[in-house]
Amino acid sequence: GENVEQHPSTLSVQEGDSAVIKCTYSDSASNYFPWYKQELGKGPQLIIDIRSNVGEKKDQRIAVTLNKTAKHFSLHITETQPEDSAVYFCAAFPTGANSKLTFGKGITLSVRP
Amino acid sequence: DTEVTQTPKHLVMGMTNKKSLKCEQHMGHRAMYWYKQKAKKPPELMFVYSYEKLSINESVPSRFSPECPNSSLLNLHLHALQPEDSALYLCASSQAGGPSGELFFGEGSRLTVL
Q: Between chains, do B45 and A101 touch, taking CB under 8 Å as contact?
């Protein structure tokens, strides 16, 4: 089955700086890579995603890149703000019936004011 | 604000109790999910309903019993739980009828089993 590794487990940045979160996956059949943000006391929220036919996608201050050859994808947050502080989960989803979304372990991002 | 509504937000129950968690979505989504999340861990899939039929059961103990009365509602019936079942239970939905990675989560129901 799929295995998604996420590093590091914690990240602290100064407000205004950029943050990069990296993930690797193992199953070459995975073709959809969402990123979820979970704030304290809330459910995960899909913030950006990328499909395997695209190398990069951007939405305002966040962007995601995908390297299919190396089987890794990254989340980039620019001009970080305190409200970006949360747990971020990367995930991978393969094609096929009864496929399951595999999450990484999550990273706690802290943005220092 | 989430469009997947879960009730109750908090639930405390004894090991002999019977209770239910409820989930509702009005986005016309075709699949609904139950996930379990322990502290500082990612969500773990429990069940998937696709077009109101159970399509995935991740070998969940029978003390958890899901039910999908219609396309907008999803219940999780709880009976004879153990303290280790204490967790955040998340409901999610997806527009796609089958399992999907593009999920809309509710805020969760935090369950404590005494």
A: yes
Strands (E), B1-114: 4-7, 10-13, 18-25, 31-37, 44-50, 53-57, 64-70, 73-79, 87-94, 104-105, 109-113
Structure-block tokens of residue B27: 């986005």
Interchain CB distance below 8 Å, B101 and A91: yes
Contact A106 B41 (CB under 8 A): yes
Q: For every one of its 114 residues, what pLDDT tens digit does chain B have, with 9 covering 90 and above?
A: 569 999 999 999 999 999 999 999 999 999 999 999 999 999 999 999 999 999 989 999 999 999 999 999 999 999 999 999 999 999 999 998 778 889 999 999 999 999
Q: Which of A15, A2, A1, A21 is nearest to A110 (CA)?
A: A15
* Residues of A in Cβ contact (< 8 Å) with B92: 43
**CA distances from residue B36 to A6, A103, B22, B53, B91 in whole angstroms, order as listed:** 20, 13, 14, 20, 9
| Residues of chain A contacting B102 with CB distance shorter than 8 Å | 32, 34, 46, 49
In angstroms, the first-to-last Cα distance of chain B is 31
Over the stretch A80-109, which tens digit does the pLDDT of each residue have? 999 999 999 999 999 777 788 999 999 999
CA distance B42 to chain A (A): 6
CA distance B58 to chain A (A): 10
